[in-house]
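Hi support team,

I've been running sequence recovery on a batch of backbones for a student project. Most finish fine, but this one hangs at about 90% for roughly twenty minutes before it completes. I'm not sure whether the input is malformed or the queue is just slow. I've pasted the C-alpha cells below so you can try to reproduce it. Let me know if you need the job ID as well.

Thanks,
M.K.
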C-alpha cells in the first residue's frame, strides 16, 4: 500500500516509519527498562507486599527497629566521611593540575586513571586493600617491621568503620577529580585579572570570587559521592563480610534466600536506600544546574 492509497474506511493510510538513527538508542532503552526500571518497580511494590501478595505496611514499619536504624546511621556516616574526604582530596588534586602550574602531560594520564579507578570496586578492590592494609598486608607489615608503627595498636582495622571509609576513597577521589575538573576549567581568567586590578590577594580571590562560584559544584559533587558510597554493596560485603552492620550487608542477608531472611523486609531496606540516594542525586542535579549558570 502506498502512502497515498485510500484505506477501506476512507482514511488516507500513512506508513509509519521509525528514523534509523533511533535504532542506536534501542539497546540503551532496553538496558534501562530491564535492569533499572523493572527492578526498581519490583522493589517498590515488594516493599508494600506480604509473601502472598497482599498490601501491608509492616515491612516499612520494620525499618524502624534498633538494628536497622543503626545500620542506616552507620551507612550514612561512612558515606558522609568518604564523600567529604574524597571531595577535599579530589579538589586539591584537580586544582593542582588545572591551576597549579604542573606539566600539561600529567593531566591526560590523571584523568584516564580517574576514569578507570572511579569504576573499580567489588571483590578486586576489597582484595587489593586487604593485601595492602590488612592484618598481614604489605604496608601494615612494612610499617611494623621497618618503621616501628603498628597500625593495629593505633586502632586502625581494615574491617572497621575507617577501614571501609579509606577503601571507598579509592573510587571517591577519582570521581571527584572527574567532576570538578571541568568546573575549575570554567573559572575565567578575566575574573582573576579583575580581582588583581582591584587589589585583591590570591586568598581574597579564592574566598570572594572563585570559591563562591565553585561552591554549588562542590556541594553537588559531595551529594553525588554520598549517593555513590551509600549504594556500594559488593565492596562492603567482600571486605567486611558481616563484621560491620551497614545497610547493604543487612540487605544482602535478607534477600539471599535462606530461612532466616525476609525478602520483603529486604525490599523495604532497598526502598529506603532508593529514597536516600534519590534525594542525594536530586540535590546534585539541582546544584549542578546552579553552577552551570556561572560557568557558561
Amino acid at each position: 500500500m502506498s502512502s497515498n492509497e485510500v484505506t477501506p474506511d476512507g482514511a488516507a493510510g500513512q506508513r509509519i516509519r521509525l528514523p534509523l538513527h533511533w535504532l542506536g538508542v534501542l539497546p540503551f532503552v532496553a538496558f534501562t527498562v530491564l535492569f533499572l526500571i523493572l527492578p526498581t518497580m519490583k522493589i517498590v511494590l515488594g516493599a508494600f507486599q506480604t509473601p502472598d501478595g497482599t498490601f501491608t505496611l509492616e515491612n516499612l514499619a520494620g525499618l524502624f527497629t534498633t538494628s536497622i536504624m543503626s545500620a542506616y546511621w552507620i551507612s550514612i556516616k561512612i558515606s558522609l566521611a568518604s564523600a567529604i574526604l574524597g571531595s577535599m582530596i579530589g579538589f586539591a588534586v584537580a586544582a593542582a593540575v588545572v591551576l597549579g602550574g604542573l606539566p600539561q602531560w600529567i593531566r591526560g594520564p590523571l584523568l584516564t586513571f580517574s576514569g578507570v579507578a572511579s569504576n573499580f570496586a567489588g571483590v578486586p578492590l576489597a582484595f587489593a586493600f586487604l593485601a595492602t592494609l590488612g592484618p598481614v598486608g604489605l604496608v601494615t607489615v612494612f610499617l611494623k617491621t621497618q618503621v616501628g608503627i603498628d597500625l593495629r595498636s593505633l586502632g586502625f582495622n581494615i574491617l572497621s568503620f575507617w577501614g571501609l571509609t579509606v577503601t571507598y576513597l579509592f573510587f571517591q577521589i577519582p570521581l571527584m577529580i572527574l567532576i570538578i575538573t571541568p568546573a575549575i576549567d570554567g573559572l575565567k581568567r578575566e575574573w582573576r585579572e579583575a580581582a588583581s586590578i582591584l587589589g585583591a590577594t590570591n586568598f581574597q580571590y579564592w574566598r570572594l570570587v572563585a570559591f563562591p562560584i565553585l561552591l554549588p559544584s562542590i556541594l553537588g559533587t559531595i551529594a553525588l559521592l554520598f549517593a555513590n558510597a551509600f549504594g556500594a554493596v559488593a565492596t562492603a560485603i567482600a571486605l567486611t563480610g558481616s563484621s560491620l552492620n551497614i545497610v547493604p550487608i543487612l540487605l544482602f542477608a535478607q534477600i539471599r534466600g535462606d530461612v532466616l531472611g525476609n525478602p520483603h523486609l529486604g525490599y523495604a531496606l532497598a526502598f529506603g536506600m532508593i529514597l536516600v540516594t534519590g534525594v542525594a542525586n536530586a540535590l546534585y542535579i539541582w546544584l549542578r544546574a546552579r553552577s552551570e549558570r556561572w560557568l557558561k
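--
Follow-up from support: It reproduced on our side and the slowdown came from queue contention, not your input. Residues 76 and 230 are 7 Å apart (CA to CA). No action needed from you.
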